[in-house]
Design a protein that fits this description.
Number of helices: 13
Strand content: under 5%
Largest sheet: 2 strands, antiparallel
Distance between the termini: 40 Å
Oligomer: single chain
Low-confidence stretches: 1-34
Mean pLDDT: 83
Strand order of the largest sheet: 1-4
Helix content: over 70%
Number of strands: 4
């Protein structure tokens, strides 16, 4: 009796595997077309703004301005990479700003206690990765939603930062020059921060596009049931993505610490909004299953370009927040309408 039941279950699983594989291939081919169109559209928008600003301001087409724009989103862009991967798998992390701050605080506090900055930074990054791991466990084991879990950890991480520092900024002026180089150094005139950022972008973009392991992230985010039928351990994939987002947030926090030579417990408030905005503008879906690292970088570049342009045009800072909010609203609305259209098309077929 037991063997007959097992045989029936195995037969059902084998029957579902070709169907799941077909779904995976269909999702992969469909996503490739969407990604290329979205990325090409963002490149076109960026070029149009650049051309317009070259006539509007004589200071726009200068190396100093482009250097400032690259620096403004390079460190935050490291967090965007982790957020994009988490969005693709169907999650979201509202705690990234607080986790970045916690990495600064832990690394700075350990350094002030006598630990060398490299070991202190490693411990800080691992602590942030552990926070991401705990969030993944809460989602997969308990069944909570990423939104609620990350909201709770956002408050916890911020509270820990205030507790460790007692609400007082930590001055880290005594950091060795070799460590400060991470955030302040140049290589052939190019800030090391920018080189590090593009290295991380290229690495994870290649993994998402060509790695079998990371392709499972797309399958899990687009159709978790089909992914389960094909043998993908979706819970493990979610935990890995959540942990990776925490680790990259920790890396960003360490780079910020090296750049500013300080650790402020109020740092990173509101960062999650700009990070999510960049990822969504770049094509990542809040429903999961869609997005690329390159697209997210283009989204971050667009937001930085808009901010720089508004500053050069002497637009009041309050209007800048409103305009960025409107850009996010348009991006989310476009994502919603695109998903609605895809659902109606799949229903008809």
């Amino acid at each position: 009796m037991t063997s007959a039941k097992a045989l029936k279950t195995e037969t059902k699983s084998e029957t579902n595997k070709p169907e799941a594989t077909a779904v995976q291939n269909g999702v992969h081919n469909r996503m490739l077309g969407i990604f290329k169109a979205r990325e090409a559209g963002l490149v076109a928008i960026i070029l149009i703004i650049c051309i317009a600003m070259s006539f509007a301001s004589p200071y726009f087409l200068t190396w100093q301005n482009f250097r400032a724009m690259l620096l403004s989103f390079s460190i935050e862009g490291i967090v965007v990479v982790g957020m994009t991967i988490l969005l693709i798998v169907g999650g979201i992390d509202l705690s990234v700003g607080s986790v970045v701050c916690l990495a600064m605080v832990i690394g700075g506090k350990l350094f002030l206690m006598g630990l060398d900055p490299w070991s202190a930074s490693l411990i800080a990054v691992l602590a942030c990765g552990f926070i991401g791991y705990l969030m993944g466990q809460c989602v997969t084991r308990i069944g909570l939603h990423f939104f609620i879990v990350s909201l709770a950890f956002m408050v916890i991480a911020r509270g820990l930062s205030l507790l460790i520092t007692k609400g007082t900024p930590q001055s880290l002026f005594s950091l060795p020059p070799s460590f400060k180089f991470i955030g302040q150094g140049d290589i052939a005139g190019m800030p090391f921060v920018i080189i590090l950022f593009f290295g991380i972008v290229v690495f994870f973009d290649l993994l998402l596009r060509h790695s079998t392991l990371f392709r499972k992230v797309y399958y899990t985010g687009s159709n978790e049931k089909a992914a389960l039928f094909s043998g993908i351990k979706t819970k493990r994939i979610k935990i890995v993505c959540s942990t990776l987002c925490g680790l990259l947030s920790g890396v960003a926090g360490v780079v910020y610490m090296a750049r500013f030579g300080a650790a402020t417990p109020q740092f990173g408030i509101g960062m999650e909004l700009s990070v999510i905005a960049a990822a969504v503008i770049g094509g990542a879906s809040l429903n999961g299953g869609a997005g690329t690292i390159f697209g997210a970088v283009l989204g971050a570049a667009l937001l930085s370009l808009v901010t720089s342009s508004l500053i050069l045009l002497d637009v009041p800072v309050y209007w800048q927040d409103i305009i960025r909010g409107l850009i996010l609203l348009v991006a989310v609305s476009a994502d919603h309408l695109l998903n609605k259209r895809k659902r109606s098309t799949s229903t008809k077929s």
